[in-house]
Amino acid sequence: MVEEAVLIGTETNAAETLEQNPNIKAKNIILFIGDGMGPNQVALARFAVGGANHRLSFENFPVTGIVLNHSAENLYT
Questions:
Q1: What is the mean pLDDT of residues 52-58?
Q2: Rounded to an integer, what distance in angstroms lies between the CA atom of residue 7 and that of residue 27?
Q3: pLDDT, tens digit, 9 for 90 and up, residues 61-70
Q4: Residue 19 · residue 36 · CB < 8 Å
Q5: Closest CA to 33 of 56, 9, 58, 55
Q6: pTM value?
Q7: Mind spelling out the 3-state secondary structure of the chain?
């Protein structure tokens, strides 16, 4: 697995990575919520755009999470 540094800084050349300065505080955080984007849907989009070895831009984000939710008492929500 290839790890990439996350750049935090301004639009100047003074951007630092978290590895260089762990005391940097985030100015803004962007949260992407891809509703209906399970592993199968992402794989289909990957195949449609560029084939099995293609990677979509968001697959390079440094952090990814998957959540499974369902009704506690019913089959459908």
A1: 88
A2: 12
A3: 888 888 888 8
A4: no
A5: 58
A6: 0.52
A7: CCCCCCEECCCCCCCEECCCCCCCCCCCCCCCCCCCCCHHHHHHHHHHHCCCCCCCHHHHCCCCCCCCCCCCCCCCC
Residues composing the chain: 77
Distances in Å between the Cα of 10 and the Cα atoms of 2, 47, 69 are 25, 35, 37
Output the average pLDDT for the chain: 77
Per-residue pLDDT at 44: 93
Question: For 48, phi and psi rounded to 5 degrees?
Answer: -65, -35
Residue 31: CA count within 13 A, CB half-sphere: 3
Give me the residue label for tokens 């592993």: 39
